[in-house]
Every structure is written in C-alpha cells, then in structure tokens.
Specification:
elongated
C-alpha cells in the first residue's frame, strides 16, 4: 500500500510540475478520442441508415425470390406467395413488403425518400407513434418516418407531393400524411409508407411496367409461432413454397448492397486510429522516461523500489490518458449537438463504451515499453558512476 501511495504522489507531483507538457499530450489524446468516437458514431449512423428498417422488423425470417442472393432489390415475388407462406406450419403471421424510391417535391428543397408498402397489422408495417394507419385500396394516404418530419417540418394532416417517373414522363401525386413512425431509415433515406395498390400506381416504373396493375412484393417478412424453431420453419418454407429462398434478419442485413464493405471500412479506420494513438502515447512517454533517467537513478539510489518507479509511470500514464479521453468525449458530445439532421451521427451505447475502454487502455499499452525501461534502469549507470 505504501508503494502505491508513494508512486501516486510522485506521478501527480511530476504532472503538476510539468503541466504544459502533459496538457499537450492530453490534448493529443483528446483529439484521438474525438476522432475514434466520431468514426464509431458515424459508422453506427451509416449502418442505421442502411439497415434500420430491416433490423427493426417484427419478423424472424425473410422470404426472397429464389436466386436473388438475399438482396431485396433483386427479389420480386409472385403475389400468391404470401398465401402459401401463411399456410406453412409454424408461421404465426407474414406480411408482404414492397420497396422503391421517390422524391418529395412540395418542399423548399426536394427530399429523396424510400417509399415502402406494407399491410397494417402484419409484419413489415412498423408500430405508429402518432396518428393512424393508412386505409386500404388506392387511398392516397401515407405514414412517414419521424426523420422525414424532422428534416422537412411535415406534420400529420399535411399533404405532400411526390414526383415519380412513369415511363419517360415525370408525374406528380398528392398524399395526405396520416401517421408517424420512428426509426425506419432504408437505403440511407428516410421512409414513407403507403398502401400496396397506391404504391403500384405511383412508384417509378418503366413503360413495360405501366401495362400491369399488379403489385409484386420484393420480400415477405415472416413471424414465427416459436422463434426457437427458426431452422425447422425455414426448411418447411423451402419445401412447401416454390421458387423462394429464406434468410434470417442478420443474413438479410449483411446482404444489403454495400453494408458489409461500408462497415469494414469504418472499422478499419477506427483500428488504425487506435494504433496511431498507441504509437503517439508510447513515443511521448518513452521520450519522457529517457529525459529523466538521472532522476530515476537517484530514486533507486536512495532506496526506491522498482515497484515505486513502475507504478509511478503507470499511474502517470493512466491519469494523463483518462484526462485526455474525458476531454475528447466531451468535445465529441458538444460537436454532435451542432450537426445537421442529415448527417447520420448516432451514439451506440455498447460501441461507445467499448471505444472508451479501448482508448483508456491504449495509454498503458503505448507506455508499456517505457515502463519496462524505467524499472530496468541501473542507478550507477543512470548516475554515470558504473
């Protein structure tokens, strides 16, 4: 205990005597922390923007057209498939999902959105946080994601005008906003939901598609009676329904175009930032130890143990690193308050805590060489008497 107390006293005393030097390295650590947390939050925001709707589905399995490689945009199912899926033993409910993109033009600045269709009360239609669900048929009504409302100021009861390319011409359709949902971004765009028949009528389509009034779902979200039987029900679906392939939610997310590559890139950036932090901190404390070799020699000559010297270096590194991480975390939070809503910046509790723990650990890790060097200093050699 005396060793720790003495080591703490020596470490803090040196930090206070050389405030400018240690403050400088703390600010460097703060900037590294800012960069790491920013990359983590940006990566989470980009991931949410791409996967959020799929990740929040009230479903256990997703049904695709066969040979679509589990890609939503490449799948286009027969409308009768939904009835076949619902009849499979173990399926509690299933809902078709139709996907496309469009643009709201009744704003000062046009807003690109994902336009999805789903059946209220079935998997695929998210729960409302305000308002009501749209009516069936070709009702010109829409339920919008809260992100649309935040970025545009649209409220329940307002009318929006969307532009849709029909063949070679642009046409405009008016929809009344009747409800609000939350957390439903899809393909990096906020989302609006409409009835399936309305979706088929107003979605962007080619000349060939104009001849058909049948809405073909891209995928079917399946909720199971017993989620523990997911593998059994998947096999039943493959055997009982023709021309389909089935995936769980994580597989569906990983096959969203660009998702895996995007997350791999963000994680690589975070890793190299941490690596740079280790090298910077290690270099600073190595130089610090080299500059005070004579002082360490004096400490050892008057009876200080390796434990005191080693623990003093460890405590010093931890204190400086913790201060830098705290400053960097505060700067990141303040920085996030002034970012526009269009920037996908999301703090994930688990990911942020993991990043902070890694940042706190890079100090002792980076200073490990200097700590080992400090405890191996010979007093006579340090004082040039050996």
């Amino acid at each position: 205990m005396k060793t720790i107390v003495l080591a703490f006293y020596l470490a803090i005393k040196e930090v206070l005597r050389n405030k400018g030097r240690f403050l400088l390295v703390s600010l460097v650590i703060a900037l590294i922390t800012l960069l790491v947390l920013f990359i983590a939050a940006l990566g989470e925001g980009l991931a949410n923007g791409n996967r959020q709707y799929v990740a929040n589905l009230d479903a256990d399995l997703i049904v695709f057209l066969e040979k679509s490689d589990f890609q939503i945009t490449a799948s286009r199912l027969d409308p009768n498939t939904i009835r076949s899926v619902r009849r499979v033993d173990g399926v509690a409910d299933a809902g078709p999902i139709y996907t496309s993109s469009t643009e709201i033009v009744s704003l000062d600045e046009p807003l690109k959105v994902s336009m999805l269709a789903a059946e209220p009360g079935h998997p695929g239609m998210p729960p409302l946080i305000e308002g009501r669900n749209f009516r069936g048929g070709e009702a010109r009504e829409a339920v919008i994601d809260r992100n649309v409302a935040l970025r545009s100021g649209i409220q329940i009861g307002d009318e929006i005008i969307i532009r849709s390319t029909q063949g070679v011409d642009d046409e405009f359709f008016t929809l009344e906003v009747v409800g609000l949902v939350d957390g439903q971004s899809y393909f990096f765009q906020p989302t609006i939901f409409v009835p399936a028949s309305t979706w088929e009528k107003i979605r962007p389509q080619s000349e060939a598609d104009l001849a058909s009034n049948t809405a073909y779902p891209n995928i079917i979200a399946v909720k199971l009676t017993d989620p523990a039987q997911i593998d059994i029900v998947r096999q039943r679906l493959l055997e009982g329904v023709s021309r389909i392939e089935v995936a769980d939610i994580p597989t569906t997310i990983n096959n969203i175009p660009g998702y895996s590559a995007q997350q791999g890139t963000v994680q690589t950036q975070g890793f190299f930032t941490l690596l740079i932090g280790v090298m910077v901190i290690g270099g600073f404390f190595q130089i610090q130890i080299l500059q005070k070799v004579p002082q360490i020699g004096v400490l050892k000559a008057i009876g200080s143990s390796n434990g005191v010297v080693g623990w003093s270096a460890v405590i010093q590194i931890v204190v400086v690193t913790a201060f830098g991480v705290a400053v960097g975390g505060g700067l990141t939070f303040l920085f996030s308050l002034f970012l526009p809503a269009a920037i996908p910046f999301v703090f994930n509790g688990v990911r942020s805590i993991a990043a902070v723990i890694l940042l706190l650990s890079i100090g002792p890790l980076g200073g490990l060489v200097s700590i080992l060097y400090a405890v191996r200093i010979e007093p006579l050699k340090a004082l040039r008497l050996g």
